[in-house]
Write a structure and sequence with these properties.
Elements (H helix, E strand, L loop, with lengths): L13 E5 L28 H14 L3 E5 L9 H8 L7 E6 L8 H6 L4 E5 L5 H8 L4 H13 L4 E7 L7 H11 L3 E6 L17 H11 L4 E2 L8 E5 L6 E5 L12 E4 L4 E3 L8 E2 H6 L4 H12 L6 H6 L11 H4 L2
Parallel strand pairs: 1-2, 1-10, 2-3, 3-4, 4-5, 5-6, 6-9
Antiparallel strand pairs: 7-8, 8-9, 10-11, 11-12
């Protein structure tokens, strides 16, 4: 199978696919307190359409799949979809991102089906702060899922969005999780994908500031290898079991090695997190387009991919500022 490249010579082998825009939390950094207007079911890609699309992209060279949302486990029969995905030729590894609220009953089957890793969204280790950030009292469910993942030897990455005035006091506590747990705790710059735009007048907790804060508290923090196409700068504290990552999601320092594309729950292709959609694949699928026609449209989109997230943002239709809810984008 040939490697798929974009117009900047970057390989594309990773598809992040949202199976729903719905979520059972209302996280501060993701959507307004009242939530968002969800898509009618008929506007979501069907499982059959998802399977066809993954099969098609796998034949083009995309070998890594991540299922996202919204919250993936909110969608009925998600495990049925996963059972079909793992059988698709060309799919070498699959992952899932979840908030952990509905995940625990499925962990043994996820392990059996060969999930490569689970990204667990967890922004604090304090129950009250969890309620404030997510606007739901589900802290114990999330922690139970984390423990079950570890008990079943599933690789876990904990995603924590760093928010001024919300969870700064958790940076040390979450770093301490790596002392005895073989987990990767990743601290993520907050982005304006909350359905309203930026919460702050100025950007405060950059990846550099996060690093400096950790280094101040852990002077022996050491840099470790970042794998190819990594979105995180990775570190380890000597003697600790796990590792720490810092993701410059807003600073966008990793665009030069980006190997991923996104598909929203309604079937809109995003070749960059910061664009507003470059191809309506759902319409192609439902208009009777054959596989070659869809491949040609995908290749056209890949050949016009922006060099970085700043250019993608500038190209947005009518120059509208970034403000969508991450739930509608696909994590």
């Amino acid at each position: 199978m040939e490697t798929l490249y974009d117009n900047h010579g970057r390989p594309i082998n990773y598809l992040r696919l949202a199976v729903t825009d719905r979520c059972n939390l209302r996280c501060f950094y993701c959507m307004p307190e009242q939530g968002i207007t969800y898509l009618p079911k008929k506007e979501l890609l069907t499982f059959e359409e998802i399977i066809r699309l993954i099969s098609l992209t796998a034949s083009m060279g995309i070998s890594k799949i991540r299922l996202t949302g919204g919250e993936p486990f909110v969608r009925n029969d998600l495990m049925k979809l996963i059972r079909n995905i793992v059988e698709i030729p060309g799919v070498k590894e699959w992952h899932i991102t979840t908030n952990g609220i509905l995940t625990a009953p499925h962990i043994k089957e996820l392990k059996k089906l060969g999930v490569a890793s689970v990204n667990l969204s967890l922004d604090t280790l304090d129950r009250e702060r969890f309620k404030q950030i997510t606007r739901r009292d589900e802290f114990s469910s999330c922690l139970a899922t984390l423990q079950a993942l570890l008990d079943n030897d599933i690789a876990v990455k904990i995603n924590a969005v760093v928010m001024e005035g919300k969870n700064i006091e958790d940076l040390i506590a979450m770093t301490e999780m790596t002392r005895n747990k073989n987990v990767s705790v990743r601290f993520i710059e907050e982005m304006p994908f909350n359905g309203a735009g930026s919460h702050y007048k100025s950007f405060t907790w950059s990846y550099r500031k996060i690093y400096e804060y950790l280094k101040l508290n852990y002077p022996d923090l050491e840099k470790i290898h970042d794998h190819a196409n990594s979105t995180s700068y990775n570190y380890k504290i000597p003697g600790y079991s796990g590792s720490i990552g810092i993701i410059a999601a807003f600073s966008r320092t990793f665009c030069g090695s980006c190997n991923r594309i996104r598909l929203t729950a309604q079937g809109i292709l995003k070749t960059c997190l910061y664009d507003d959609g470059v191809l309506d694949i759902r319409t192609l699928l439902r208009s009777g387009a054959n596989d070659d026609e869809i491949k040609n449209q995908l290749m056209k989109a890949f050949s016009q991919r922006p060099a970085n997230g700043f250019i993608a943002e500038e190209r947005r239709k009518n120059h509208t500022p970034v403000h969508e809810s991450m739930s509608t984008i696909g994590g």
